[in-house]
Amino acid sequence: MMLKNPAAKYRPFPAVPLADRQWPGRTITQPPIWMSTDLRDGNQALIEPMSPEKKLRFFEMLVKIGVKEIEVGFPSASQTDFDFVRMLVEENRIPDDVTIIVLTQARDELIRRTVESAVGAKRAIVHIYNSVAPVFRRVVFGMEREEIVQIAVKGTQLIKELVAQHPQTQWGLEYSPESFSTTELDFSKQIVDAVGAVWQPTPGNKMIVNLPSTVEAATPNVYADQIEWMCRHLDNRESLVISVHPHNDRGTAVAAAELAVMAGADRVEGCLFGNGERTGNVDLVTLAMNLYTQGVAPGLDFSDIDAVRQLVEECNQLPVHPRHPYVGDLVFTAFSGSHQDAIKKGFAKQQPDAIWEVPYLPIDPADLGRSYDAVIRVNSQSGKGGMAYLLQQEYGLELPRRLQIEFSRAVQRMADSTGREVVASDIHALFSREYLEQDRPYDYVAHRMVEDSAHGVQIDLDVTQGGAKQACRGAGNGPIDAFVNALGLDIRLMDYHEHAIGRGADARAACYVELRVGDGATLFGVGIDSNIVTASFRAVLSAVNRHLAQAGEQGAPVARAA
Ligand SMILES: CC(=O)SCCNC(=O)CCNC(=O)[C@H](O)C(C)(C)COP(=O)(O)OP(=O)(O)OC[C@H]1O[C@@H](n2cnc3c(N)ncnc32)[C@H](O)[C@@H]1OP(=O)(O)O
Ligand SMILES: CC(C)C(=O)C(=O)O
């Protein structure tokens, strides 16, 4: 049961004393160093950890999209993890511009095994961690601050000693005071400075100081304050790479990472699509694409984001949510009428090389290799814009606005009665039934037409009426006028639109007419034919037949009074 008074069990996170904080006034103008921990933090959180084959495919994909720092595992955890790192090294799988990182607890035997795993790599970073927060000091380690500092210091000393024995590898150190964000800042500084004093980094050979929110416990501004505080107070800042490793327990890891970068972080650790312990690590894809939509090149290439997602889903055996930013199945889809209307207008106005300004779409799906197919989908929440967009995209039909209004009522009825999504082929089938297959009682058969400036248009027309062939003749000041006169129909042409469908020899004409038949209401007819004039005749008959079908026997007559 939720408590009536949660304050009896939970306490608010204290603010950071940083009155002159600078980060709120900053903007991000370049990407951080990206570090993927998919193969470590991501992998350790999977129901079934990845096989070596999957890890390798994942590694190669990370390389392909441009990640330069990849945490490849926890080699002392298992033979599988150890062998994977050895395989990368021995089979020369690590490109020259990529650095691998191997994680270890600050325990002697684990450190030895970890260093051993990476020997022979061109470059490798040994990542050592120990938890420093009060609850860990008390509950997990049963140690005072100074003893906790000694764990990190002794671990670093051992690493320094071991890596010195393998100078063919260019070694780096990453130190994580685990659970940094729930630790007193002065203690985090004390332990990081102590590690730095052992490792002795220089501006040319920096040490990575990774400041994780191991469990996200406060609003992102608090994390940003903590990062800015550390950047200002740590010894030898110019010799350090400040890294962040936000988890997503409160659902704000992306915001925390972004504010932390504004606060001075140089590097971000995370996983693709936010895999990782519990609610996951920060999602590197969202971070990168957020930068991209601000006009900042992220240095990671998600031009085929669906392929990346597919591989990640396969390796992690976890689905990516349909609403996941940038990649989810539904994130570029509008069902609702007003969104569809604005998107359709936005697409029509958007120039190919101009700044992207399509309402409701923060990014051009094409930049991510995604198609426009799913941008607009139709259900009972949709308006005319949605179905018009689908008919245009899928079938090349450009319905005039008033026809959109007329036809959308039929689509709405269909969506309401099924209660389901109506796909483009359903809409087209309905459109065909409603307009194109209206061949009773009148159906077009053939015509011959002569036109001269003195007499206008003369037409000989063959139609069927109720199945019976009928030949008639008429004249008028244009083809439609002559056609209507030949049939003796009581109709007035209110509006006319035409356009080509397709190009070249296969091109056809689509013609839309709005007619008033007798005293009845106005309604549309549509004709499609390889001949533009025939298309217009078919459109007229479509409207007349629709009128007769709707009006029934009581309807207005279509034949002119004698
Ligand atoms: C926040 C993070 O994600 S950190 C990374 C976590 N990832 C993993 O743990 C995955 C891989 N880990 C493993 O497979 C195992 O933990 C192993 C093989 C590395 C070690 O297993 P075990 O030897 O059984 O130790 P275990 O991990 O349970 O740790 C317990 C002991 O290590 C100590 N310890 C835990 N973390 C650390 C650390 N970072 N540095 C030093 N000591 C540590 C604990 O205090 C405890 O000590 P105690 O036995 O004296 O009480
Ligand atoms: C090892 C550290 C960086 C970690 O995974 C965490 O704190 O979440």
UniProtKB/TrEMBL annotation:
InterPro entries: 2-isopropylmalate_synth_dimer, AIPM/Hcit_synth_CS, Aldolase_TIM, IPM_Synthase, LeuA-like_post-cat, LeuA_allosteric_dom_sf, LeuA_N_DRE-TIM, PYR_CT. Its main location: cytoplasm. It catalyses: 3-methyl-2-oxobutanoate + acetyl-CoA + H2O = (2S)-2-isopropylmalate + CoA + H(+). Pfam families: HMGL-like (PF00682), IPMS_D2 (PF22615), LeuA_dimer (PF08502). Pathway: Amino-acid biosynthesis; L-leucine biosynthesis; L-leucine from 3-methyl-2-oxobutanoate: step 1/4. Keywords: Acyltransferase, Amino-acid biosynthesis, Branched-chain amino acid biosynthesis, Cytoplasm, Leucine biosynthesis, Magnesium, Metal-binding, Transferase. This is 2-isopropylmalate synthase. It comes from Massilia phyllostachyos. The gene is leuA.
